[in-house]
Amino acid sequence: MAEVAVVAAIHRPNLRLLRRQVESVLAQDRVRLRIFAVLDGEETAENRETLEILSEARVTVIPSQQRLGIRAAFALGLKAAMPAMPQGACFAFSDQD
Known about the structure:
alpha/beta, four-stranded parallel β-sheet, 4 strands, 29% strand, globular
C-alpha cells in the first residue's frame, strides 16, 4: 500500500470546512496517509479549536510563531514530513481552498 504525506497550510481556517477537509483526507482507504498540518500564524483561540480538530494519531501539528505565508508554510511542513515518511512515499499539498 502506498504511503502519502499530506502537507496542509492552515491560516485562520473556517473550522467547519477544516473538519471536513481532515475527515475527507483521512477517509482515503487505498493509501496510508499522514497529515502534517502547519498552523501558520500566532496562537489564538481559533488555533486551539483547530488543534482539537487535528487531534488524531495520523496528524502531526507544526506550529509557527509568526505568519509565514503559504509557500514557507508548505516548505516547513515538507521539511517535517520528509524524515518521518518512508523512502518512496508520495507528498501532496492541501490548503483551505
